[in-house]
Here is the input.
Amino acid sequence: MPFVVLQTSRLLWVRTAALLCTCVTFSVAAHGGALGNSGDLFMFCWCFSFAGTLLVLVVELFGLQTRAPVSWTNFPITFATYASLLCLTASVGFPLTFLKGYQWQGEVRDHRIAATVFSCLATVAYFVEVSLTRARPGEVAGYMATTPGLLKVCETFVACVIFVFVSEPVSYDRYPALKWCLAVYCICFVLSAAVVILCVGECTGCLPFTFSRFLSAYSFLAVAMYLTATILWPVFQFDSRYGNNARRPDYCRNVGTCPWDKLVGVSVLTALNLLIYLADLAYSARLVFVSG
Here is the structure.
C-alpha cells in the first residue's frame, strides 16, 4: 500500500509537470514565436498533449475512473505514450524549422528557444510517466501497459509520420511497387490502430476469435509486408535505373528539408517500423505459447 501511494504521488507530480510544460510551450510559441502556418503541427502536438493531460488529471482527482467510457487501465498510459512521441517530434522538428539557420538576435528567437526547452522538459515528463505506469514483470495490468501494447502505439505513430512524408509532395504514385508500399503502411496502421481502440474501449472480448492468436498472426503478416516495403521503397526511390538520384541534390543545401530528405526519412522509418513489428511478433508469439 505505501508503494502504491508513493507511485500515485509521483504520477501526480509528473503529470502536473507535463501539464505546465506543455502550457508554457504553446503559450510562449504562440505569443512571440512568429510561427505562422508552419507551426501548426507543433502547436497541435503541444495543445493535444496539454488537453489530454488535463483530462486525465481531472478524472483522477475527482475519482471519475469508473464513469469513464474507456478502460482506465489502458487509456492513461496509451495517451502518455502518444504525448511523449508527439512532444519528442516537436522538440526535434521545431528547432530544425524555426531555429536552424536563424542568425538574428531578438525577442522572437528567445521565445523559440524557450519553447524548445519546455517542449524537451514535457517530453521527459511524459517518458517518466510511461516508465512509472508500464507493467512490471509478473504484474497484472492492462494490455496497453505491457511491452506489446506500447509497441502498438509506436507502430501507429511511426506510420503517421510516414504518411506525412509521402503525402507532401506525393511520392508513391510513380510505380506500382511504391503504391504497394503505401498499401503496406495503410493496412498495418489500420490494424494496429484497431488493436489500440479495442483495448482502450475494452472490446477485445467481443471478437469471435482468441485475441492473443490474432495478435500473433497479425504481427507475422505485418513483418512480412513491412519487409517487402523496406526493400522496395529505397530501390524504386534511389536506384538510378528508375531515373532516381542516390545523392542529395544540390538545391537541398539551400532549404531546411527537401523532398529527397523526406524520401530518406520514409526509408529509415520503414526499417524502424519493421524492427518494431519484429519485436512485437516476438512478444506476441511468446504470449501465445505461454498461454496456450
In short: Residues 259-291 form the longest helix (33 residues). The two ends are 33 Å apart (CA to CA). The helical segments are 2-32, 40-61, 75-98, 107-133, 147-167, 176-200, 211-238, 259-291. The CA atoms of residues 159 and 185 lie 6 Å apart.
